[in-house]
Amino acid sequence: MSFDGDLVIRRAVAADIPSLVALFADDAVGGHGDTRDPAALPDYEAAFRRIFDSPNDTLYVAELGGDVVGTFQTTLTTTMTARGATNLTIEAVQTRADLRGRGIGAAMIGFAVEKGRETGVRLVQLTSNSKREAAHRFYHRLGFTQSHVGFKMKLR
Fold first, then answer.
1. Lowest-pLDDT range, 49-53, 59-63, 81-85, 132-136?
2. Cα 29 to Cα 97, 98, 110, 134, 135, distances in angstroms
3. What is the pTM of this model?
4. Which of 8, 20, 32, 84 would be 63's cystine partner, CB 3.0–4.6 Å?
5. Domain ranges, residue 79
6. Per the domain annotation, does 45 fall within a domain?
7. What residues contact residue 64 under an 8 Å CB cut-off, 6+ apart?
8. Does residue 12 lie within any of the structural domains?
9. Is residue 1 pLDDT above 50, yes or no?
10. What percentage of the chain carries pLDDT values higher than 70?
């Protein structure tokens, strides 16, 4: 890792919303329609509140020198399969574009995996946009294996 300081990974707070929006708005591949337009801020604030209030979801930020440089979200899902196992899903992984390749993403994923171990989950899973070939290589390097095919249905 090549950080110019100490990387801190912590639960996101409402004051982080502008930094989070900036990370997602700068993502040209995601195609989620994220924007820095102030008119969209209430949507982001409402989403933050739903995530923050959820007992199964946690939104994290990675901070370097006081700046938010990355983010990810985890969700715990308990199913009837695997004898009632709980899985941890990692979503919305994003590292600031100018800092990619410096170990921030690996630190965030390592943090999430360790949280899963502490919680006693059966497995950690994530999905990645099929266009993100570099991200796929990254996840393979971290020990993830490709095991399923995903499907989506947009409703709005």
1. 132-136
2. 12, 15, 24, 12, 11
3. 0.90
4. 8
5. 7-141
6. yes
7. 3, 4, 5, 6, 7, 8, 99, 104
8. yes
9. no
10. 95
Q: What is the DSSP string of 38-57?
A: GGGHHHHHHHHHHHHH-SSE
Residue 122's pLDDT is 96
Mean pLDDT of 77-91: 95
Rounded to whole angstroms, how far apart are CA atoms 58 and 88? 11
Please say if the pLDDT value at position 32 is more than 80.
no
Q: Which candidate, 153, 154, 93, 79, places its Cα nearest to that of 122?
A: 79
User: What total number of domains does the chain contain?
Assistant: 1
Tell me 87's DSSP state.
E
End-to-end CA distance of the chain: 40
Question: Domain containing 100 — which CATH number?
Answer: 3.40.630.30
Structure tokens of 48?
A: 């933050």
The residue length of the chain stands at: 156
